[in-house]
Amino acid sequence: MSERQRISSLLRRYDIRLSKRLGQNFLVDTEVLSRIVQATQVGRDCDVVEVGAGVGNLSAALARTGARVTALELDKRFAPIHVRAEADLRGPGTLRFVYEDALDFDYATAAEAARAAGRYFVIVGNIPYQITSPLVMKVLEDGLPLASMTLMMQREVSERLAAKPGSRRNGAITIKAQYFADVNPLFDVGRTAFLPPPEVTSQVVRFVPHPPALDEARRPAFFALVAAAFMQRRKMMANAVSARGIASREKVAAALEAIGKPASARAEELSLSDFLALYAELSEKGCAQ
């Protein structure tokens, strides 16, 4: 019996109809499941929080590595399937299901518990696509002792998070995500790997946090500068930033030239390091503080 047939049979047995509103598109391709587990690099020394457990097939695969897995699922209709997954688990890992909204879960407490036990804290998930940006930014902004986060998401969102300078995908969320972590797209996952097939191509992305470049007190001003720069994408940055009252057009233009960029530069042309340099230059002039 294929994984698609197995999951279809479970859904029929427990009379569960998948919800489009909840973004329920479950992985049924065992090769993709294996690639995701391999990409997470988890093992016996890891505490894993999985977001969007669904029927629990990725949850069980993660636990079989020896990791301690806490699998989050909002929909309690899957509880009977989860009981069976827990009972069928073999190996050194552990698996428990928690019925909670992933945006409300206390990741900080879980991360601190892992650190206190001398273990790595990892987040994994085939997440509902409508919560991708809020979840990613919640985890990264909280500054958790996080080893890595590997997520399946809509490819278009992944391309925005990992965008390079000069790309039309480059935006405020790009700079913000890359400020907190290295963003590494790993591989695409086609529609046929899911039950039911989504309308878009998906991509697996790995986030590895790195130390922030600025202290916490200066971050709000830096991100305000970034937000202002992208507020009117088609405008020159000097005009966009000055329109938000952060600095005059002349000061922004001079700061851009000081970091080696033309005064006519647009926000999408700048990298994270460019924005940090621009912020430092404006701060020296008494702006962006």
Structural commentary:
The protein has 289 residues and is of the alpha/beta class. The chain folds into 2 domains: 3-209, Rossmann fold, CATH 3.40.50; 216-284, Helicase, Ruva Protein, domain 3. It is built from 12 helices and 9 strands. The chain has helices at 3-13, 30-40, 57-63, 79-88, 107-116, 132-141, 155-161, 172-180, 219-231, 237-243, 249-258, 272-284, and strands at 26-27, 46-51, 68-72, 94-98, 120-126, 148-154, 181-189, 194-195, 202-209. The protein has a 7-stranded mixed β-sheet with strand order 4-3-2-5-6-9-7. α6 links the parallel β5 and β6 (148-154). α6 crosses α8 (172-180) and α10 (237-243) packs across α11 (249-258). It is elongated.
User: And the CATH topology of the largest domain?
Assistant: Rossmann fold
Average pLDDT, to the nearest integer? 95
User: Which percent bin holds the helix content?
Assistant: 40-55%
Gyration radius over CA: 22 Å
The total tally of domains equals: 2
Strand-and-helix sequence, N→C? HEHEHEHEHEHEHHEEEHHHH
Question: How many H/I helical runs?
Answer: 12
Structural class, by secondary structure, is: alpha/beta
| Number of DSSP E strands | 9
- Under the CATH scheme, which architecture of the largest domain would be assigned? 3-Layer(aba) Sandwich
Shape: elongated
What is the strand content? 15-25%
Taking the alpha carbons of the first and last residues, their distance comes to 62 Å
